[in-house]
Structure formats: structure tokens, C-alpha cells
């Protein structure tokens, strides 16, 4: 049977039921996917995604005596750390010194909603460019792969499309042959290939070119408005992590796959 590759620009562009049987990669490059991968690479015990701020507060009350591992409230609204929370959504905050062994209760504007939308899939992974090769290696051989972009405030975002294209490109490189692609999957792959061509022409690395192009994306512009310029550079770095976060909808936990 042919190996399939699909891309969905927003969760609302695909029904939850249509993801059944697929390996779904949830992508929120700026910044939830990158932050989750960074946190687990730094030794966080788990990340539990929630849709609303109130859900995080209630979960903290319920889970406080469940384990000796510390609980940390984490996430953002409007690109800013939520008042009273320990951490925001900048991956640079998630160092081993701060999060090692911790259980992170996490909510963001876009990424955590995309994770919940994928709950019926055969497997749910969290993808970005930081874990590009490790993720693509874990996808090899899967019959059907769906790249699910979180978008920005319910709008299609180019940053997620570029990350989806990078994943598609690396996966097909590793497998040594093209997959049967949907039209959106073909489109995101072309976008990433165009970025690579531009990078070569300008003598830049893929990471350097991506950091430049992120400044003109919807999510990138939002971060620049609130002074999070460094997050664009951080989230553009290719292959800095060798972890593959996996989301288990039944337990509500993201851990290392």
C-alpha cells in the first residue's frame, strides 16, 4: 500500500474522525511545539496540555498531592506569560535548572487546541524544526502521516506551513522516495524547498533563513510586537533536539516517545 502524507493548515480544516488511523504530527512552531520539545529534553517529567487557564488552575488543585514531582503552571495568552504562572511560552525559559523532574500544566492560544483535535489519531507526536530529524526518523514506515498545523488565532500561519514542509522534506529524504501527497502536503513541501533554495543563494543556513522569514509570519509579527525577538531565532534552529514528544489523549500527558 502507498504511504500517504497529508497536511492540514488548521485543525478546523479536518474533522477529528478523519484523523483516525493516522500518525498525526501537531505543529505550532511559534511556540508551543518548540517549547514542549525543549521542556522534555530538559528533563521535565511530563507536559499536560489544557484548553483554558481555569482548566490549569483546577488541575493544579487536583494533582497537587498525587506525586512528589513539583507542579508548574505554564503557558501564555496574547504571547505573554499568564499572571500567576511559573513559566510562559518562551522555549528559553525551559532550562534543566527550572523544569527537571517537574510536571508542567500547560495552556497556549493555539497549540494545545490542536493537540486536543488530534485525540482520535493512532498516534500523536509534537513536531517543530528543533526535533526535525528525530521526528522524521520516528515517522518512517508509517502508512499515513498527517501534519496538523495549529495556526495563529484561527488563521492559517506560514510558520507552521514551513515547519510542516521541513518535516515532509526530511521524511521523504530518509525514506528515499516520495509519498502519496495531498495537495496541501505538496504545497508545504514546495514552500520549504523554496526556503532552502533562497538560503543557498544567500549563503545562509536553513536555520538562518528560517529565522529571517519568521519575522514576516503572523506568529512572528505577534512576537515582535511584544519584544520576543529572541524566540524567533530559538524556534528557527534546526535539529538542536533529539526528542520526540508523544501525546496520550487518554491520560492527557505528553511524554517522550
Description:
By secondary structure, this protein is of the alpha/beta class. The chain contains ten helices and eleven strands. The chain has helices at 32-41, 53-63, 96-99, 111-117, 132-139, 158-175, 183-202, 206-214, 218-225, 229-235; strands spanning 4-8, 23-27, 46-49, 71-77, 80-81, 103-107, 123-127, 144-149, 180-181, 245-248, 253-256. The two termini are 26 Å apart. The relative contact order is 0.23. The model has no long low-confidence stretch (mean pLDDT 96).
CATH superfamily: ComB-like
Order of strands across the widest beta sheet? 9-1-8-2-7-10-11
Termini Cα gap = 26 Å
Integer tally of domains: 1
Question: Radius of gyration in whole Å, from Cα?
Answer: 17 Å
Total of helices: 10
Q: Look up the CATH topology.
A: putative 2-phosphosulfolactate phosphatase
Per DSSP E runs of 2 or more residues, the count of β-strands stands at 11
Categorize the overall geometry: globular
| CATH class call | Alpha Beta
Spans with pLDDT under 50 lasting ≥5 residues? Answer: none
Structural class: alpha/beta
Task: List the helices and strands in order.
Answer: EEHEHEEHEHEHEHEHHHHEE
The overall pLDDT average reads 96
CATH architecture label name: Alpha-Beta Complex
* Helix content estimate: 25-40%
Give the oligomer, counting copies of the same chain as homo and different chains as hetero. Answer: single chain
Amino acid at each position: 500500500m502507498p504511504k500517504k502524507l497529508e497536511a492540514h493548515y488548521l485543525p478546523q480544516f479536518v474533522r477529528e474522525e478523519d484523523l483516525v488511523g493516522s500518525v498525526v504530527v501537531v505543529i505550532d512552531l511559534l511556540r508551543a511545539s518548540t517549547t514542549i520539545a525543549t521542556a522534555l529534553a530538559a528533563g521535565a517529567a511530563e507536559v499536560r496540555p489544557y484548553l483554558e487557564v481555569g482548566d490549569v488552575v483546577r488541575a493544579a488543585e487536583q494533582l497537587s498531592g498525587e506525586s512528589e514531582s513539583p507542579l508548574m503552571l505554564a503557558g501564555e495568552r496574547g504571547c505573554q506569560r499568564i499572571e500567576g504562572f511559573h513559566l510562559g511560552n518562551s522555549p528559553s525559559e525551559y532550562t534543566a535548572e527550572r523544569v527537571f523532574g517537574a510536571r508542567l500544566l500547560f495552556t497556549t492560544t493555539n497549540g494545545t487546541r490542536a493537540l486536543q483535535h488530534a485525540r482520535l489519531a493512532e498516534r500523536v507526536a509534537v513536531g517543530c524544526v528543533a526535533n526535525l530529524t528525530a521526528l522524521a526518523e520516528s515517522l518512517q514506515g508509517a502508512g499515513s502521516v498527517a501534519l496538523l498545523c495549529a495556526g495563529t488565532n484561527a488563521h492559517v500561519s506560514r510558520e507552521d506551513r514551513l515547519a510542516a514542509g521541513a518535516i515532509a522534506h526530511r521524511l521523504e529524504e530518509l525514506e528515499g522516495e516520495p509519498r502519496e501527497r495531498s495537495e496541501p502536503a505538496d504545497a508545504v513541501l514546495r514552500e520549504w524547498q523554496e526556503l532552502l533554495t533562497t538560503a543557498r543563494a544567500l549563503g545562509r543556513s536553513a536555520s538562518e533563513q528560517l529565522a529571517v522569514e519568521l519575522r514576516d509570519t503572523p506568529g512572528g509579527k505577534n512576537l515582535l510586537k511584544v519584544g520576543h525577538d529572541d524566540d524567533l531565532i530559538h524556534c528557527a534552529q534546526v535539529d538542536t533536539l533529539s526528542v520526540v514528544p508523544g501525546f496520550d489523549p487518554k491520560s492527557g500527558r505528553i511524554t517522550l516517545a
